[in-house]
Amino acid sequence: MYIVQGKPGESSLYPYTQSLLPEAAKISNDATIHHPQEAFMKVTQGHWEVREDEVQWGQKIGEGANAVVFKCKVRGVTCVAKRLKKGMQARSQSYKDLIMELDILTTVALQPHSNLVRFIGASIWDPENPIIFEEYVNGPTLDRYLLARFGNRMGRKTIFSWSLDILKALDYLHSRDPIILHRDVKPANLMLTRDLTTLKLADFGMCKPVDRSVRDVVKHHGHTGTLRYMAPEVLSQRLGNYNEKADIYSASLVLWYLATCQRPPDNDLQRIYERPELEAVKWPSFEGLIQRMWAQDSNQRPSARECMDAMNAFPDKPDISSGIAPGRPTCCNLQ
Ligand SMILES: Nc1ncnc2c1ncn2[C@@H]1O[C@H](COP(=O)(O)OP(=O)(O)O)[C@@H](O)[C@H]1O
Ligand SMILES: [Mg+2]
Question: Which sequence positions are flagged as catalytic?
Answer without folding.
Answer: 184
